[in-house]
Records
---
Amino acid sequence: MDRISELPKEILHRILYFLSQKDAVRTSVLSKSWRYIWCTRPNLDFSHKSFKGDKTKFLSVVDKTLQHYCNQRLCLEEFRLCMLGDDSADQESVLFFDKWIPLLTSMGVKDFQLSIIAEQSVRGIIDLHVVLKAESLTLLWLYNCNLGQNIPENIPFVRLQELQLCNVLIKNEIVDKIISSCPLLTTMLFLDCEGLKTIKKIRPHWFSRGSWNKERKLKELGEFVYKIEKMRESGN
Amino acid sequence: MAAETGTPTTLTLKSNDDELFSVAESAAILSVTIRNMVEDGCAGGVIPLDNVDGKTLASVITYMNGISAIPADEEKKKSYRDKFLSDKDFETLADMVLAANYLNMSCLMDAVSAKIAQVMEKKSVGWVRRKFGIENDYTPEEEAAVKEEHKWTFEGVETDDDN
């Protein structure tokens, strides 16, 4: 047998770890010994952009794969999902999120990265508050989405490191809650978030953890608050 | 251990083809396998590494010395790793990934795995087969069936023609 196919499965998994879902799945065609290597690797990385098919098909591939991992009790450590396009935040995908988010929690996923980049036209129509229940999130990027009006009792993002919200409808109280319950946050970006007036709960202990540069970050937050205030003054 | 005596300790590693190598303990303990031996006090004499040949072990030790000389600076470590692996052919990379796995060196394991993955990235099945000498043992019907099952993965892949 050739050298690469002879490598132990755990090494092949590590190699496939660095490939997109598409490249990893395609290795199943290489030869019989490669047939099922991809579908036991400990990470999944789905991007609607590289999928190129229609969204219903994309959602069904993600769902089928996730279900396979769950049914076979396979170890899944990382799950990355990137949805984008005019219909990425429609009712159909929200139904899948409703199913996947508890599933990922029950499967013990440690690193969940979610990007939902919707077209501006759909903003506000679909309530994505289910995202606020995703326990293992380490990265959350939302563009043109609506996180709903209900303020959840707990935000379970104990692992969240990076948060980017652009043109997201979100209650100020939810942002305050996210900030006060995410000790590992190192990167935060808010752009054009209607409903977000100020960040109140800047906790000193929050800056001493992780890699925060206290002064710099405080300054950035200060500027952010300033921008928001400025916007309100000018009547926007 | 070195930290207790205050003098740098040197370990002797033996490859499976009986070559002996001296390496500073501080560099060698990048390998969790070796670190465990040191911590258990089993690293006094010669440490036999039955799964690594001399050529590969020499290379791994170069890496251990190089990376441990860089202070905690992830960017510099990354650029060292990139440079270290840049001239290695696939046979060498395969030896190194096996050694890294055996020695439990996650940083080297990841760097080599990523490097191998990079070769496969966005490439067609035919190209990857040729590159790695993988023999296609599917019948045409079987291959067509597997392709059909994962049709979505065949769009936007580089064609075979350029290689």
---
Amino acid sequence: MLYEMIFAGFGGQGVLSMGKLIAYAAMKEGKEVSWMPSYGPEMRGGTANCMVNISDDPISSPVVNEYDVVVALNLPSLKKFENKVKKGGILIWESSTIKDPPTRTDIKVYPLRAVELANTELKNGQVMNMLILGSLVKLINVVKKESLVVALKETLPERHHKLIPLNEKAIDLGMSKV
Amino acid sequence: MREGYEVVYKRPKSLIETRMHYCPGCFHGTVHKLLMEVLDEMEIVEKTIGVCPVGCSVFAYDYMNVDMQEAAHGRAAAVATAISRLHPDKYVFSYQGDGDLAAIGTAETIHACNRGENIVFIFINNGIYGMTGGQMAPTTLKGQITTTSPHGRDPINAGMPLKMSEIVSGFDGVAYVERVSCNTAGNARKTKKALEKAMKISEQKIGTSFIEVISNCPSGWKCTPVQSLDWIKDEQIPYFPLGVIKEPGK
Amino acid sequence: MGEIRFMKGNEALAEAAIRAGMQGYFGYPITPQSEIVEYLAMQEPNHDYVLVHAESEVASINMLYGGAGAGSRVMTTTSSPGFSLMQEGVSYIACAELPCVIANISRGGPGLGTIQASQGDYFQAVKGGGHGDYNLIVLAPNSVQEMVDHTIMAFELADKYNTPALILTDGAIGQMMEKVVLPEPIEYKPNKPWATTGKTKDRERNYITSLYIKSEDMEQKNFKLQAKYKEIKENEVRFESYKIDDAEIIIVSYGVSSRTSKKVVDLAREKGIKVGLLRPITLWPFPTEEIARLSKLDSTKFFLSVEMSVGQMVEDVKLNVEGRKPVYMYGRTGGIMMTPEEILEYAVKKYEEG
């Protein structure tokens, strides 16, 4: 099993942390993982992305050119990475803010109104990324939902632990939408 | 010892018995001796580590019988910082010239002083680069002739001589600053007192000490040792006045 | 089994230094390695090490000299422009034969360049870097786990040979996160009778210097250094081979590029092209004999140096192939990460050209 994934969006949308979380969860399940961020000034307000590889075997290249999974949370990311989805791969895109949908037909495309759902149903736009992660783990059997919750507990600083139930709700909501 | 005689003057035990490479009349020998006397009298040789960067005194480890590190030009303050931090129970001194401390090493000097490192700076200010053959230093006086200011230091081009003691005395981290000289026997005694005071402050760990020694360079100044003493009195000291600039509790 | 954590390369290096018994750290922030000083600053209250946030890389490297000379296990870290600034100090440390660890989490240049990962510091790392005849032991980790392992190894090698050890990796390895297994902390007890720790009555004074003003003395010092370097070359070459035995194309690659190259090997073999990977783990000493051996095999058609530069390590590959086989180079610069596909495409093109 090898999943090569990229999470891309604006800085501040939580793309780096959703990548970290799924990688951490996979590590807890005994898998090999790598997380490679784009870094530097572009993290702050510009586009940000992270590549995550999850595998049963040691990971050779942390950088790849085509992905099994692309998560695009803004239009520039969608434009940049739509063509990088492997044939038959998965593209999840944020459809309440991106107005220009993807066009490929040889991949599985999942629009998700994550920003809107997070704001209306959970009253907190910040957990949008968890909602997406929920959808992702429902779509592919890469990590268990429980592992994501464990990852939240072990990676969030203690002072943010009160937010874990909300994050878990977001994951559940995401799972229910695909 | 001949009967009826008593020793009134001798080489300090920790000053290594060898011929110094310093030029005749140079104050380095005097300051080395005074420093070693202080360490001997305070019985802190075992607890002292010295740093001597590039300059005439880079060979100080040939004369001072204490553990020492040579340092790159200008970097003594950084080297001494690490030694002092890793050996907080030791006395650490940094023996530097003006080109070293006040030109190439200004940043290290300023920041070590500002951090209040427990270092005793011994700043030999003779207004010239001695080792490289008499070039203009940051402390060369206005109008003073050197090989790189052959028409005299022109403040329009080179600025005015840098007053390091006044600069570092402005930092909270600095406990004690005094400017001394060795141009007279009396002044040499004051230099020794200042060195002793600095070592005692180091023991208390209350901040950096900075002793500026107004010094000479007969070779670089192209004069006799006696003439160099006149230059110190008539030219240097009026611009770099001697005395305590800052001391603990005041 | 040690403690398992999910860490950034930079954090892993910092944690490994703590567990190696590091006593002093001197550093200055520069992207992409600032996490190291940040991590060590955060952890400082829990440990005994001294941490100085220096005023510049020039100060850091000279603090390193002072701390190493005073007998402590010390480290500094930086990235390319900072490493350039340090070179004078590194030369002093090499000449004074002081054990210490330096890490260069390199970025793209020349000039202010880019903060993205690069391997353009190879020359500076393996050819001395500063003035005079000297070498550093250069380790090139290619994973977060190796950031841990190599940091510990660097301290040990530095102590073994009284010489500075350099960890040369790139911003990608520094910034990426992987699973690491951390070793138990060791209690480091320095045994450095030459160090400036205060002259006790039972010994002569110690002094640390790199000054040998008499030509004859300087030459003797150089002979001594070279004898040491020879010993290091004989004992400390480390490399990793992957599917090398029957390979027609030998990729030579280190750091993050070697990870990408490993994938190239597998992709090529899926196409029926026998590619193998030789990864120098020590860039200095370089695996000269292994490269020479491979160049003499009939099965070897050519070498391909894969590096994020315009071609630096390729010169050392050529030096050891000695014209027996063609040596090519594929690289990107400016912080552009190579993909396995583009390397493979180049390799196949050269293969088909015969």
---
Amino acid sequence: MRRPGLRTRVAAAFAAGAFALSASMAALSYGFTSQALMAGRERSALRSAYLDAGVVHAGLATERPDIPGILRTLNTGSTRRALLHRDGRWYARAADAGLTDAIPPGLRGLVEQGRLGMQRVDTDSGPAVVVGVPLPSSSGFYVIDSMRELDQTLSTLALVLTLVAASTTAAGAGFGWYLTRRVLRPLDTVTAAAREITAGDLSARLDPATEPDLERLTTSFNEMVDQLSTRLERDRRFAADVSHELRSPLQTLSAATSVLDRHRTRLDDRAATAVTLLSDEVARFQRLVTDLLELARDDQPAQRAPVDVAELAREECQARGLPADLVRVDGAGTWPVDRRRFTQILGNLLDNADRHGGGATAVRLGQTPDAFVLEVDDEGPGVRPEDRTAIFDRFVRGRAASARGDSDGTGLGLALVARHANAHGGRVTVADRPGGGARFRVEVPRTEP
Amino acid sequence: MEQVLLIEDDDRIRLSLTLGLEDEGYTVRGTATAEEGLREQRRSPADTVLVDLMLPGVDGYECIRQLRARDDVPIVVVSARDDTHDIVAALEAGADDYLVKPVAVKELSARLRALRRRARASSVAAVTALVFGDLEIRPEAGEVAVRGEPVAVTRTEFRLLCELAEHPGRVLSRAQLLERVWEYAYGDERLVDVHIGRLRQKIEDDPAAPRHLVTVRGMGYKLQR
């Protein structure tokens, strides 16, 4: 499993912290508040019960007391129910009948022993507190005081506190997310600079002054880029020097052998043979150096522009003495490619077919929905499956060519084809041609990847 | 006999190219520095100048600029440098063509012939005057004028302008222009771009926003009123 990102982790930590804090605060405040409210409510229940008990006591002092009448005179409001237990009988107002079950036996025992008692109970209509007041002549006066209102208040409080805790948690997560974004923002400039450098702009640097806390990062980043550009510049200059130092003597060789070649008739047979060898080798050496220098060039992306590839393919065929009608075009004959690179792709594939495949038999320019496709067929021995990757490496020559002792090729032609295809974001592959021979296929995506 | 001035500091290259070009029928004078070459060209102008870029003292670019400041002699760069910057800089300095070493003597000779041929071709084109608004081209006289004022263009620039002028309003691709003006079956299209740029400097009021010599994106160039 992938490790969650820094931002997620920081946000989660902030959320957890905020949750722990707000939940404990909420729990504490709920505890204190409910306790205080409950105690107050019990006190007032006790006080009211006392007062009522006084009234009942006074009523009972008469000769023949009308107990329901006495109970009716009590000002109990809608939340309190009064009950009287006298001589083993329960008395209540008509509306309050059937409440005797709510009186807990323990409380009754306490009152019957002549002691004041109070207990919280759950009734059918919600929580309540029952107050029992002993009266003389073995009577007990009970008041069931409903606490539904308080209960509702407390559940509202609990709801509010829960919501507060939840939103604090969410705010914590949001804050963590925002904070990491703020903290990581300077890294965005690092990313942007790195991207510019990758794209080839070696002048991109970071300003250490913009973010003093990240000075070490920016300083070492800049040092790294300095080193990199120095090294690249050195490599570039070395490549340019190598190019110059190889091309100059080749120029002399080329011009001098052409003079020898022209005056061949004046030479004896042995010398003429030597001149032929010399000029062939010079020509091959020239191709080798040109190809090597091409490969050594830094990997720049292809510079695409519309090219009439159909015309180009015909020209390349004719330049090699092949009939132009080898070229078959399917769809548009103008592709957005790097002309120089595509010319080499075509030329090298045709040369390869000539050297190792008995000559090209077809050149097809086609298209798929997302790529342009060039195929060059030959009718040679084909390429063995185990060689199909290796032939695009440098200095790999066909087996047949080695067997013949033919050293005409440079061994770099197909490597260059692969390089140029890659520069376009495409690739080159080789397969069997139906009916024998090899089929080289170059795919160039329509747009840059 | 065509006279070629070869400015090349490498003695061996100078000697071998001299031998090779002489075999092709040219008369070659070689100098090892730009200063000598410029002096030689002043003393007795050659028909074509071949110049290397890396020269001791005055370098190839400056040499091209000074040659170009004097006249429109065809200048061909023969250099070991194949960097785009170097090629464009040399062409912008005023070179007509650019060849990267090693170049075969036959190829070099073909380039020289092409340069000379187009120089002659333009002088025999039998059209009196081609007018594009305030731009006037007289192929016969080899003259270009903007609002009646003559403008000095090189032979290559003139040939390029004539090619475009012969097809007014029609787009010619870089490949077509390369073939018609430089006689390249295919070649470096930067040759065309840099020459168009040089022409704009000379005939346009605002070279950055050309009115006559316009680029048609993805296709090529055309000349219009």
---
Amino acid sequence: MKSLYVIVVGCGRLGAHLANLLSQSGHRVVVIDRDKESFSNLSSEAFSGFKVEGDASEPETLRQAKIGQADLLIAATREDNVNIMVALVAKKSFGVKNVMARVYDTRREGLYREMGLETVSPILLAGEEFFRLVYKALDAGGEK
Amino acid sequence: MLDDKRVLIVGCGRLGSQLANRLNREGCRITIVDKDDSAFTALEEEFQGIRLKGDALDESVMKEAHVREYDLAIAVTGKDDLNLILGLVARELFGVPRVIVRVRDPSRSDSLGGFKFITVCPTNLAADSIVNQVESALAGGDTRPFDNPAK
Amino acid sequence: MREAQYLLSRYRGVLAYVGLISALVGLTMLFPLLTMLVQPMDSLAASAFFVPGLMLIAGGLSVWKWLDSSKATLTLQEGGVIVILSWFVAILSGMVPIMVLEKLNLTQAIFESVSAWTTTGLSVIDAAKANPAILLWRSTMQLAGGAGLAIIMLAAIAGPGGTSLSTAEGRTDQLVPNVRASAAMVIRIYSGCVIAGILALHIAGMNWFDAVNHSFCALSTGGFSTKAESIGYWDSPVIESVTIVLMLVGNLNFVSAWCLLKGRFKALSRNGEIRLVAALIPIFAGLLLWLTCAPIYASASKAVRVATFETVSALTTTGYSTVTYGNWNSFGILLLIVLMLIGGGACSTAGAIKQHRIYILIRSLILEIKRPFHPRTIVIDSSFQQGEDRIPISDLQVRSIGNFVFLYLATWISGSAVLAAHGFGIRESLFEFASALGTVGLSIGVTNADAPVIVLWSESAGMLLGRLEFFVIFTGAAKLARDIFRIAKPETAC
């Protein structure tokens, strides 16, 4: 399987977890976060990529992460606006082909799609999963 | 089929209220607990269930909720640890047959012992979804979406 | 109770990796059989390689298949245990052909095996009389030991491993942001250099057999030779120059080597280790030339060659020599000891305290001295170059380096004392033990087949402690002992 060069922006829960999974699968992962402490979320066993401490909204930070080589960038910080901006910069200025952004405010999803960004909404996914499980539980509910 | 199913929901935040509204429309008998009664404004007008204000682990609240009588308990407060405790209490102590709990922190969501209730971790779901997209695109041999023309 | 169960499940993973590494060790054992193409080997000799080799491959792979279920990831401590157990397997297997073919006793065979895997190069075997298969085996062990069993393994498997193994082995270099991709690249660089080395040495005048062995041992900064006189046998400036280049390349840490290949010279020129080496070699070689070599050697060119070669050999901890030291004055011996203590580049195949640590200590010292002279508000640049990045020097780093250096020097003195207690002079004891501890391999005469048993064991211990940088051995052994206790006696843990 081909190894992708992936940049993950934001080393919070989602970013760190993503970085761990992708690194373990053999992809080359670089994680960017403003705060050095966030890198402790990374698993020392699963993650073998590089870390860049800096503000991803600054092009210099992205260059340090060698964005020119990136196959995929995932913006996973806690703020929608930052994610969108970084995603756009990656796509339009640096020409990264595949860009995903995490969104909290699901009302904006349509707009982001129009801009050519793939979005990920953990909240939506959790909601869908919850409903699926609830219906399953209640349907089966007769037997104790 | 969902008529008269009794559901306990702890936490009336965004997800909690969504669940409560929908299930209520489908005919479930819902008791929803939140320590902050302003949270209940998220509930629809048609909501017919019981609203309880208080700390779900508080004895008096538990008594009022008649915890033993539910078919399904859902813990969706803002705090992972609280949700986990609620899950354990509902399942182990009160024997609620089905329990679903939200845990935001991925490292909390897999347990050494194996919980007897279901945990839903939004982070894991999102991460898994992304990784699956990546892997299936690659496995399908279609690396075109991922090839960087600049290289 | 639960803890014992939990530990056992973790050890499945640990033993699985040990199995895999053992299989790889078994594979290397088959390599020397190639000498049969040139010179027949009797069946006993061949089976000394064949039998353990196949057993390891079969056994190791079965353990790997059978135990490796969950693909769980390892902790750093578990990595340490894996490293210890693997080294154990490697040393014991390495010893078998040596014992059988060279008729050595246990102490001597283990010594030679340890010297091979740790890329030291001290020997109790007379190379002139040894079986070529054994010579090739020694060189193969040095090549593999230099690359690091762990790195090879990481490249080979398709499973997880994270950075714990390479960190546990004492390396933290990484070329690209994924450990398996990095490992694959390291292997490619290493192989490329080995092949280039073989060609270069052959062109310079060695026959193929000698070229292969010396390329293996120069790049891994090991130092075993097919000749008793080491590189001095050829008395050839060309061969000596090629060997010097190979030793310097072997001394480069992988990140620098990669920069070199990619043409990133600016980053290289700012690298502290490279600067240190660029400074140390001329200074030391110059001093050696002036005060030791010029008086002894008849021609000026010979003196220059000797001074340069021995300096590079000692600093890179390779251990090839062009002369013996019987007629050297104490100043020369002292210089060599200092070089052997400073040692090679960090994250390379070299040993001792390592240039990187010395460089950081020097920077730290300079900062200390400058500090009172600067106004309080000035920000001083305290960072060093690693590959492409500048990394700040932290107090924690300086402290841990300080501790390491202290431990190193204390061990050196203790080991030397053991040698001295057996009748060897101060000069000889300090020299030989520095050579063992730093995995250098230069010998002043203490190490040979007749050396006292305790001396050989002390040197073996020194080589291992030096190669694995003490702590892996301590923490790995401690964890292993504690875990065995907990698994065997679960009631006390409950």
